[in-house]
Amino acid sequence: MGTESSVQVFCPDYQRLLKESQIALTIWNNGRAAIHSAGHRGRDADNTLRILQGNFARAWAALQRHDQYCEVCQRVSISEGRSFPGRSLAPAVRCLNA
Ligand SMILES: [Zn+2]
User: Fold this and answer.
1) Ligand 1 midpoint to CA 27 (Å)
2) What burial class does residue 80 get, using C-beta atoms within 10 Å of its C-beta: 0-12 exposed, 13-18 middle, 19+ buried?
3) Which of 8, 43, 58, 87 is 20–30 Å from 22 (CA)?
4) Alpha helices per DSSP H over the chain
5) Would you state the torsion angle of the CA atoms of residues 44, 61, 81, 87, taken in this order, to the nearest 10 degrees?
6) How far is the CA of 25 from the centre of ligand 1 (A)?
7) Strand, coil or helix: what is 43?
């Protein structure tokens, strides 16, 4: 538990949203890997990946919204000088925008 930041302790909503984003990202990555390794191509594979990507995008957007409007997280943000809380997910988000 030593790696958990104080943000997660202060704000259970943030913790939940971050976890949902991470789970959605993991499912998306696993789905992509499974489709690639199985050699699936075509519309079904595309649709599946689009759904998984959409799930992650929704979870990520909710996390961003929370970070903007949650007073608890903003207080912690100021006192800790942190930037965006979901930094560990940023590479995946760049992938979304690509
Ligand atoms: Zn919060």
Assistant:
1) 24
2) exposed
3) 43
4) 6-10, 12-38, 43-69, 71-80, 90-97
5) 0
6) 20
7) helix
**Whole-number Å distance between alpha carbons of 50 and 44:** 10
Gap from CA of 76 to ligand 1 centroid (Å): 9
Full-model pTM = 0.69
Domain boundaries, the chain: 7-97
Ligand 1: centre distance to CA 72 (Å): 5
Specify which of 20-24, 71-75, 92-96 reaches the highest per-range mean pLDDT. 20-24
Distance CA 2, CA 5 (A): 8
